[in-house]
Amino acid sequence: MGLEVGSERVIARCRELAALSEVAGETTRTFLSEPMREVHARVGAWMATAEMRVSIDAVGNLRGVWGDEGLPRLVIASHLDTVPNAGAFDGVLGVMLGIAVVERLEGVRLGFAVEVIGFSEEEGIRFRRPFLGSMAVVGTLEEAELGLVDAGGVTVERAIRRFGLDPGRMGEARLARGVFGYLEFHIEQGPVLESMGRALGVVSALVGQTRLEMTFTGQANHAGTTPMELRRDAMAAAAEWMVGVEAGARGCAGLVATVGRVEISPGAGNVIPGRVVASLDVRHEVDEIRREWVGEMVRGAEHAGKRRGVGVGSRVLLEQGAVALDREMTERLRAATGPDVPVMTSGAGHDAMIVAPHVASAMLFLRSPGGISHHPDEAVLEGDVAEALEVGVRFVMGFEAGE
Amino acid sequence: MGLEVGSERVIARCRELAALSEVAGETTRTFLSEPMREVHARVGAWMATAEMRVSIDAVGNLRGVWGDEGLPRLVIASHLDTVPNAGAFDGVLGVMLGIAVVERLEGVRLGFAVEVIGFSEEEGIRFRRPFLGSMAVVGTLEEAELGLVDAGGVTVERAIRRFGLDPGRMGEARLARGVFGYLEFHIEQGPVLESMGRALGVVSALVGQTRLEMTFTGQANHAGTTPMELRRDAMAAAAEWMVGVEAGARGCAGLVATVGRVEISPGAGNVIPGRVVASLDVRHEVDEIRREWVGEMVRGAEHAGKRRGVGVGSRVLLEQGAVALDREMTERLRAATGPDVPVMTSGAGHDAMIVAPHVASAMLFLRSPGGISHHPDEAVLEGDVAEALEVGVRFVMGFEAGE
Asked: For residue B54, how far is the Cα from the chain centroid?
């Protein structure tokens, strides 16, 4: 099978699966939702055709193993769930590339097996908790997660049972003992590779992240009768802080910071804002740098507030350390891709972040045209997919060659 | 009757009327709502006791005339409607002070009559159009206003009929020919008098106002995967603009500018804001200064947007010129108050703004403790009310003395 045929098929399969949705006319497929049954049926059939032994574990991960049961095992995985109104490639592409790599191994005999996993949950939409699928596989899914409740009052445990699975068998979802490596293909979901004119990038680390909720408390008052010097305008303080956040992030290499949510009250055009609640999302690959920078921004907010008689509070919603991927695995992936391949950090979380503390892991990014993701316009270039498939095959064969 | 007794009674009447509400436990009384009937009954009785001829005109204004029909006439007026969950004094205090002034004229014979009006509508809550009461009185209430529809689908015209009034008799609501002056007492609803340590202020003008809706259009994107230099963050542009608005307003004497409403989309903590819609409310007593300043701010927004690849649009929602009050009437009121009384502009709109183009008008502000208004905590100081009542009596008697 030629390269072109392989990448065309990978893309066609992603598009085919994108039609399996909870909402007609778009792609929305959350954890163990109805359309996931048909996804399992089709992807399972493709796996079986590629001579893989297919199963569904207790958390709903679709798993296909190519090669003998007792052999050491390399895992290639990504996720099959989507955000609401998603594109066709986030997650799904990684699973389809895993299968395509196995298809390319047809007739080959290796000293290890390859397991392709389509995780049931990565996006955290249905239960507001991401990574349920990969957590089950590394054994970190706890009772607490099984008790999470969705918008309809259904627990994770109940959702699993309704799908016809047995949450009591969660232990069997764990990776086999002989797993020696993990590879994840994923679209970049950002503009970096495109801006460099490159198809592929090797991920060396997934950034750490702090999420804060900042609260600015001033005094709501009449917009016409309150002179500027007697105001305690919460939005003015928040705006000064936001300008500082942007400038501070631009001044710190590799750091990104975002104020994405702003709630202003009372929120009328003719009333001075008495209260503003704003989110701050900060990411950097070095935890120390991220934490210091966040501290600086909190002090900046307090300063902006103080000048205006506006009180400032900050609350940590998430504090997640950076995860470095395995040096040797990443070096192998770099070698399989080409010596001048960009080595980059991932600003987004991925299943590799959950797996990496347990299994030597590597991750390959594919260029995202326009940097667009989590949107129906999400795309990949066929040539990039062909290159990624070729890299995957070389990466797998590299272990056989004993490199 | 001593001064103290007069002011105590004025305050007690305001508090009594505050209990007449559409919503139990708070003060909410919109245009011709049910509790307005009882307000008319009680206030009408107080007017009658003060020897006033009481009537309700076609727009629901309560009117009491003291003195013979054929005499020239001085009007003292304010409004009887309230905002939702209001205080006891906004509007109502002006009507109660008008009646108290007349009570103080007991036994006096003047060469003119005094008409006290309690306007039925000033706040613009029910039909989202303020000043219906005073517009009817000066003859500027049009058919268009009668066709306005409230949240329940009821027109102004229908509301009038339901209240038992005849909209066909709107012409009779107009002021009598002999009206030579208009006085309005009102709480300041701002902190200026309190910050000066003064009880009363004479209003020389009501500021003009521009309301804009600003739209910042960037590109929503992933907060983790989009480097700072590749972002088109609508909120960052808006924040820079807001900081400029605040600094620009502080730099322009007498101008106030407020960004009170901010809508950010998509509005998730981990998504770069693609679009921000923000309100801008600008007020100044000189129209030219206000208009130039607004132009500067729009250019500032465009500049902040351009630096980030964010498009900026602005839409004028309201453009209302400043209204100067009558120089002679204001001078009389200043004389009645005391030569060192603060002369100030009103940053809020009041019925005097509607009446002033038609009748020589003056306006007296009473200190608002804490600058608080449109809130149950809205208050007045009894000594301030006593002083205002005294000023009102001197103001009225001044015309008789031929000053």
From this structure: 25
